[in-house]
């Protein structure tokens, strides 16, 4: 029995009771399925004894939990693969080639995503526990990470204009705050949020919540930022198309939007000096939807952006989840596959693709301690001095406007999280109470957003607030989407409407 499922108090908050019942019964079905996952894995292991549990689990997931089909897929891969040797003698049966580091080439990046609808190969981790691999070359980055990078993205005068437009703004930026267990903590860098119009800024301030609160500082996009936004839009769409061609079967990820990416919001981050940073986090999915793409433009001082895979949580059975041993295991586990460091120079555009947010965490390490060789520091930039400015252009999808997001009864929209740390529920999404604290952090494994800079504790400063009075209501429900990532109820309603229109038009 999954503790996550059983511990939660379920509230029915939507007007459509039928939908809610369907959700709960889906949960129950899921619990039943979960009981036999270990057995299924054991069965597969007995045939593919040299294959990692992750690969076997992956095979199960891509075959909807069917052992038979997973077995077939694994055998087919083996017999048609380069070596065509029997399973027991080929450890990397899921198509891992013996290329130097990884299972995919730049032109054929692999998706390691449990959400894709087609079977795929599973990459052997490029990095090792406790090690950091530095990648600079765009081809390497495309091949080995969920990102692509475009160096010298803007004409240099435009990059400088943008920097000159934003630098004066940064003096009025404030520290991003986020929730870490019961405390509100401050990220050691500053940020502000920009949208396309004053009207959008108003809407943001009144109805979009980040970590349980609205943002008081939402600004209208500035003229150069707006010009650059259209360039980012076109480049990102090109990169999405290229990336998609390399996914198994050339199809988009399951739940990823098939529509063009249209940036309509941007967080602007400022890192003033070598010590400023942002801790490990994933970006909040609530308004972006599943498998979002983000265009991240860097200006000024070059800094190190790091990524690491989210790995399923270690078994903490019998341990105090807050105890020293549990914490040691969790932090050891977090780094189980090492880290990849991507230096982001002035005027580079990093595209974080659809497989990034649900499968990987990212951070910007302090240059004073995290740089290559330990104390590398930073090289001042001719215009920005010691500052790095980063703009993360985002597309807030209409389907994820607050009016469409479940409200748990606390009067605020729920927050969308993917479940990537718990093997049993890997690849699923959950809507949960936004004002919820530590219970959910532990349970879902994944937290983190733009407002939720969930990073290494040492990197953040604890701020005044204790959230004793705001524990949240415990509400959660599994989030169900159609293949394009549209919430199922909305997708159905749209189809109904289309059908009605079609009929009336005849
Ligand atoms: O500064 C960066 O490159 C990353 C910023 C980031 O992760 C965010 O805005 O969510
Ligand atoms: Fe982020």
Automatic annotation (TrEMBL):
Residues 262-397 form the Fe2OG dioxygenase domain. Residues 408-482 form the GRF-type domain. InterPro entries: AlkB-like (IPR027450), AlkB-like_sf (IPR037151), ALKBH3 (IPR032854), CUE (IPR003892), Oxoglu/Fe-dep_dioxygenase_dom (IPR005123), Znf_GRF (IPR010666). Transmembrane segments: none annotated. Gene3D superfamilies: Alpha-ketoglutarate-dependent dioxygenase AlkB-like (2.60.120.590). Signal peptide: none annotated. The keyword Zinc applies. Residues 451-465 have a biased composition (Basic and acidic residues). The keyword Zinc applies. Residues 1-12 have a biased composition (Basic residues). Pfam families: 2OG-FeII_Oxy_2. One of its GO terms (molecular function) is zinc ion binding. GO terms for biological process: DNA alkylation repair. PROSITE patterns: CUE, FE2OG_OXY, ZF_GRF. Residues 36-79 form the CUE domain. This is Fe2OG dioxygenase domain-containing protein.
């Amino acid at each position: 029995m999954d503790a996550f499922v059983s511990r939660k108090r379920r509230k029915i908050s939507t007007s459509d009771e039928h939908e809610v019942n369907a959700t709960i019964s889906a949960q129950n079905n899921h619990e039943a399925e979960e009981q036999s996952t270990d057995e299924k894995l054991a069965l597969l292991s007995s045939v593919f004894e040299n294959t990692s549990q992750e690969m076997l689990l992956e095979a199960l997931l891509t075959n909807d939990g069917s052992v038979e089909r997973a077995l077939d897929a694994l055998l087919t891969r083996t017999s048609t693969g380069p070596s065509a040797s029997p399973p027991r003698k080929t450890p990397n049966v899921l198509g891992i080639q013996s290329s130097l580091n990884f299972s995919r080439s730049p032109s054929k990046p692999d998706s390691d995503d449990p959400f894709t609808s087609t079977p795929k190969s599973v990459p052997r981790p490029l990095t090792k526990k406790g090690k950091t691999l530095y990648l600079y070359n765009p081809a390497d980055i495309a091949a080995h990470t969920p990102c692509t990078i475009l160096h010298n993205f803007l004409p240099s005068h435009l990059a400088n204009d943008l920097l000159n437009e934003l630098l004066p703004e940064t003096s009025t930026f404030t520290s991003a705050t986020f929730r870490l267990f019961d405390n509100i903590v401050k990220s050691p860098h500053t940020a502000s949020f920009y949208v396309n119009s004053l009207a959008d800024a108003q809407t943001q301030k009144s109805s979009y919540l980040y970590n349980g609160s609205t943002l008081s500082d939402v600004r209208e996009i500035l003229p150069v930022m707006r010009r650059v936004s259209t360039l980012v839009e076109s480049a990102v769409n090109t990169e999405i198309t290229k990336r998609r061609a390399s996914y198994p079967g050339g199809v988009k990820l399951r739940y990823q939007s098939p529509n063009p990416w249209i940036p309509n919001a941007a967080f602007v981050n400022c890192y003033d000096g070598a010590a400023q940073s942002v801790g490990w986090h994933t970006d909040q999915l609530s308004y972006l939807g599943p498998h979002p793409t983000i265009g991240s433009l860097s200006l000024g001082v070059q800094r190190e952006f790091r990524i690491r895979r989210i790995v399923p949580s270690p078994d903490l059975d019998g341990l105090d989840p807050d105890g020293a041993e549990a914490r040691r295991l969790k932090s050891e586990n977090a780094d189980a596959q090492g880290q990849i460091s991507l230096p982001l120079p002035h005027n580079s555009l990093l595209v974080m693709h659809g497989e990034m947010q649900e499968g990987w965490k990212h951070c910007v390490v302090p240059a004073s301690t995290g740089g290559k060789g330990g104390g590398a520091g930073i090289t001042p930039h001719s215009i920005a001095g010691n500052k790095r400015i980063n703009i993360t252009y985002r597309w807030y999808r209409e389907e994820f406007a607050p009016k469409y997001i479940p409200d748990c009864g606390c009067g605020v929209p729920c927050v969308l999280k993917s479940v990537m740390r718990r093997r049993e529920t890997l690849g699923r999404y959950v809507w949960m109470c936004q004002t919820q604290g530590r219970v959910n952090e532990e349970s879902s494994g994944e937290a983190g957003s733009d407002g939720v800079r969930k990073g290494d504790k040492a990197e953040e400063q604890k701020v005044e607030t204790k959230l004793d009075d705001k524990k949240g209501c415990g509400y959660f429900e599994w989030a169900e989407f159609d293949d394009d990532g549209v919430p199922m109820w909305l997708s159905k309603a749209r189809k109904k409407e289309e059908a009605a229109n079609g009929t009336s038009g005849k």
